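Need a sequence for this fold. Nothing fancy.
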């Protein structure tokens, strides 16, 4: 694994309010990849995560969501095929 990176802060508008979250670069990359697979934007995923996070901090909720999403990815790929949701490059 590469050297641990410092969290990068990014701002989003959720329900009309600006908020910022800090994630390490690998989590930002994984979030962008998940958004591409789901054919949405990272901001839309973050808004959805925010809606279901309960009392957890948003940055933590995003990290857990990304981890869970890619843990389930092999089963999802088996159902939808190995290239489901991926755009042609």
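Here you go.
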């Amino acid at each position: 694994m590469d050297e641990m990176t410092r969290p990068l802060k990014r701002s989003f508008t959720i329900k009309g309010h600006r908020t910022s979250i800090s994630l390490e670069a690998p989590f930002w990359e994984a979030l962008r990849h998940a958004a591409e697979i789901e054919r949405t934007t990272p901001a839309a995923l973050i808004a959805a995560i925010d809606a279901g996070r309960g009392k957890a901090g948003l940055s933590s909720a995003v990290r857990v969501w990304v981890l869970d999403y890619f843990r389930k990815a092999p089963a999802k790929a088996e159902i939808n095929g190995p290239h489901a949701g991926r755009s042609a490059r």
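For context: Residues 81-89 have pLDDT under 50 and may be disordered.
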